[in-house]
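Input (Exocyst complex component 1):
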Amino acid sequence: MTAIKHALQRDIFTPNDERLLSIVNVCKAGKKKKNCFLCATVTTERPVQVKMVKVKKSDKGDFYKRQIAWALRDLAVVDAKDAIKENPEFDLHFEKVYKWVASSTAEKNAFISCIWKLNQRYLRKKIDFVNVSSQLLEESVPSGENQSVTGGDEEVVDVYQELNAREEQDIEIMMEGCECAISNAEAFAERLSRELQVLDGANIQSIMASEKQVNILMKLLDEALKEVDQIELKLSSYEEMLQSVKEQMDQISESNHLIHLSNTNNVKLLSEIEFLVNHMDLAKGHIKALQEGDLASSRGIEACTNAADALLQCMNVALRPGHDMLLAVRQQQQRFSDLREQFARRLASHLNNVFVQQGHDQSSTLAQHSVELALPNHHPFHRDLLRYAKLMEWLKSTDYGKYEGLTKNYMDYLSRLYEREIKDFFEVAKIKMTGTTKESKKFGLHGSSGKLTGSTSSLNKLSVQSSGNRRSQSSSLLDMGNMSASDLDVADRTKFDKIFEQVLSELEPLCLAEQDFISKFFKLQQHQSMPGTMTEAEDLDGGTLSRQHNAGVPPPVSSEKDMIRQMMIKIFRCIEPELNNLIALGDKIDSFNSLYMLVKMSHHVWTAQNVDPASFLSTTLGNVLVTVKRNFDKCISNQIRQMEEVKISKKSKVGILPFVAEFEEFAGLAESIFKNAERRGDLDKAYTKLIRGVFVNVEKVANESQKTPRDVVMMENFHHIFATLSRLKISCLETEKKEAKQKYTDHLQSYVIYSLGQPLEKLNHFFEGVEARVAQGIREEEVSYQLAFNKQELRKVIKEYPGKEVKKGLDNLYKKVDKHLCEEENLLQVVWHSMQDEFIRQYKHFEGLIARCYPGSGVTMEFTIQDILDYCSSIAQSH
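Output:
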């Protein structure tokens, strides 16, 4: 085993500067025996590293090779398996457990003992030894722990100590100096012994000779120690002095720090005081203006405005943390709050007085406008009040309760004032409407100063009382049918149109001016933020002032634009009912006035919506426009109903029906009114309804007519309708115009054919029989062989109609046509010319039948085409 140990030291560990301390021959437990060696080594250089190396013999068996190395510090447990019985097995616990079986128990114990010593010296007992005999460990430590560590190491080292390179070199030099060093070792050893003795003697003599110097050195050391003691005493005194100086310097440093801290605090305090003084100090002039300032003069209003702005800035200053805990700050805030309350009460009281005074002043001017169709001008009042606009903005942001109270008071006073003005204005308009029309006579009114008093309800009552003496609708289509063009007082309608336009023209600037004033005076612009809402800075720093400022703030409306509209609705609450009453009056005076009102109202609504679709004026006029449109539709419906209720005389000829003539007049009037109007679509729809009603009822009357033939009624009326539509060129009725022309043409042809069957009745019947035989399949040249239609019968029929009889028959026909047709439409010559053409066509048709069915018979009519032309011409001229 010793030879193996030397071989391993030489071949494996010496090249790596390591010393082999212990070795054990082992194999792995439970496997096929493959022997290897576990070696405990230490490095020769410091710091010393202790390792455990596994060495294995090569496969060829001629040398050893290093396989695995573990640092001893990584070894956690050494398990000897059994501390009592001899057992060659043992376990080493590194990162995993390695199970070994030693070749002998003695080798195992020696190896574990070496690990124990190395653990005690280098690892400070970090390794746990389990199942190891305490006797084995005690043998490793014979005289105490420390001795065991040192001695154990020497014992391990003394087993073998190899020369290093320097020692080998010195020995070689020494041996080269002696010739017999190799040949005669004894002589060489004796020589070395003699030289060693000489050196020992020299050392002893040198020691004895240096005793005197040692004594001198000891004396010098004693003196040096005395000097050191003196220096230490001085250093101690110096240290005491420096300690005193240090304490004084510490006191000075602390004092300087306190002085610096005091200065810093004073600067900060001065900054805070300057901040409070600069931002929370209100000038005496401002205080005086708030308490005693003249709110009636322009200079006083300006001073109060500046003072109020300054007060608001002082109240809204963003206080820093802790400011609100200062008594002076709280007192100043309370003072500002008292000033605000005092000035707010004074301002609200003054403005309320201004509102009341305005009502009295404006009422005195109403008498001047009582006979004029004009509304009083509120511009001076608005101009005076706008001087307070900035103060109202201040009041809105500081005391919303008083601001809201002023708003309500303004609406109450102004609504009563405007109600008086607007009602008087509409009374004048009604007087002018009824006093300048023929309807005033029916209402019992005479002249522009007619006895129209009170509201529209009294006028309506008056009209109801007189309605028994007049027709239900003054200008219904049937009534208009009984009037001439001069009776339809166009001047009255034009007058009504001007009055209605003037009413709207007066109301529009009044509403716009008031809305603009409300927006400016009450500071109700288009932004969404509402007064009284608290900003985040006010919430955090305003303290008690902010909480007082926002107390009692009402929930905000959706927008200030809505608030303006609500104020306008309350102030001008009487406009819409008064307009509706005026519209009802105009409709009673003349139902056609709804056309004028529809056009005018549509124009004003369109203008208002272009400015602001959601404004009060736009909404109100839009609502009234619905009423006007409803009246217009009612007018159209009444006309259609009256068409359906028309009754014709059974004794006289029909002629042009009243509602046909009235449609012509309606269309002409409507075209003049709706020229370039925005509501053309409504008129087109009304045209369509009316013309359909006219068509249906013309046919109905024609079917019911007893005196006048149906074709004549249809022909004359549809000719009149076609002429009207052609003249007016109404684009939406192009289809109806073509239809009217077709109906006129068809019924003209039908009437002509029906009438011409009578003058040559027998001749017509004869040739109808001939055509019937031909239709049955008889050849035309064979018709003459029929008994009822031979040549003799033909000559007999022709002899009954000589030229004189034909002229007489045509003359009777002309007279009958003249009785059927009316003079207004002047269609007699048109119908007579059509009859002439039809008669000539029939004549040619008869001649053709005679030529085809009776060839070579020499039978001809006893009159010619020229005779027919002469007869018709002479008859037309004679009448």
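Strands lie at 18-28, 36-43, 50-57, 64-71, 77-79, 89-93, 97-102, 128-130.
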